[in-house]
Write a structure and sequence with these properties.
Length: about 350
């Protein structure tokens, strides 16, 4: 280290003329940064002989203080210039737009179904997606050897014991929980996601959504069930919608029925959507089997009720003529954006 080196840095510091905040920061790094010229002098100072440390140490400290003062002075000038000239950005310009998301078509239809049945006096009940055998099968009159209990049809989480755990195959398990806990009369709908061990295709999926309904009270008849389904169909598909009920079988209802609605595309004349029949299947229903009432602690001699269930994806397919169930799960924005206007209706 020599006096000439120190004096050279002093001259450079006096000639410094940074005008912008960026230039001031660059100057600070050049003089005082880890690899700056003043920092380098301090590194050399460690190696000089002890008899020279007092002489050079004082000069270096003065130089460092002058550099800090100079940098701070230039920084204040640069900030004052910016304040005097106003902000560089024009804050009156519109911001950059970004794409808004929208509700999924399944969510739109689910909410529409819920809103319809709320008008009829139904409450909404929900339950766990991971259930036990009793709530999914046992309490709903499924015999021990029923195919639904087979691993080919159902996703079991744990098996091999008296009450195995599984992914629920229908939201009827929520109806069981409602019968266990809610006071009579009961009038609920149970929307939710369900799981079945099925091959994925245009008409089937291993994950889908259901809305099931349950009404239990004294004197409930099949005529009440038919009227509830008819009112729902006309709210969902239009006031001119007709329904037909075909005999069917479900372990938890007796008698049971499949329900079709008149095709809202061809109005019963026959088209490719309804396969020329003029009818579209939408749900299954029936009177709650007395064995189910008894299994859930309800006196079947005093009370009766009906239950129904529908697939939300199925209703959405009929409502918007979607021909492939897989579209609902692929998150294709081109498909999803087709339903943006559905929120405005």
């Amino acid at each position: 280290m020599t006096n000439e080196q120190i004096q050279q840095v002093v001259e450079e510091l006096k000639a410094l003329n940074a005008k912008t905040a960026k230039e001031v920061e660059e100057a600070r790094v050049r003089f005082l940064g880890k690899k700056g010229s003043i920092t380098a002098l301090f590194e050399e100072f460690r190696e000089i002989a002890p008899e020279y440390k007092k002489l050079y140490g004082k000069a270096l400290n003065v130089l460092k203080q002058e550099a800090i003062a100079k940098i701070n002075e230039l920084k204040e000038i640069a900030e004052a210039d910016i304040a005097a000239g106003g902000p560089k950005e024009d804050l009156s310009l519109p911001g950059e737009g970004f794409e808004l998301g929208s509700r999924h078509p399944v969510s739109i239809v689910r909410q529409e179904i819920v809103d319809i049945f709320r008008k009829f006096g139904y409450d909404v009940a929900e339950g766990p997606e991971i259930e036990d055998d009793w709530h999914v099968f046992g309490a709903l009159n499924f015999p021990p050897n029923h195919p639904a209990r087979d691993m080919q049809d159902t996703f079991f989480v744990s098996a091999g014991h008296e009450n195995p755990v599984l992914l629920r195959t229908h939201t009827s398990s929520v109806q069981v929980r409602a019968m266990e806990k809610m006071p009579l009369p009961i009038r609920v709908i149970c929307p939710g996601r369900v799981f079945r061990n099925e091959a994925i295709s245009a008409r089937a999926h291993c994950i889908f959504h259901q809305v099931e309904g349950l009404y239990i009270d004294e004197g409930v008849t099949f005529a009440d069930l038919k009227q509830a389904i008819l009112l729902f169909a006309r709210e969902m598909f239009g006031p001119d919608t007709a329904i037909r009920m075909r005999p069917s079988y479900f372990p938890f209802t007796e008698p049971s029925s499949e329900v079709d609605v008149s095709c809202n595309i061809c109005h019963g004349k026959g088209c490719n959507i309804c396969k020329g029949t003029g009818w579209l299947e939408i749900l299954g229903c029936g009177m709650v089997d007395p064995n189910v009432l008894e299994a859930n602690g309800i006196d079947p001699q005093k009370y009766s009720g009906f239950a129904f269930g529908m697939g939300i994806e199925r209703i959405a397919m009929l409502k918007w003529q979607v021909n492939d169930l897989r579209h609902y799960f692929e998150n294709d924005l081109r498909f999803l954006h087709e339903f943006d206007t559905a929120l405005e209706v």
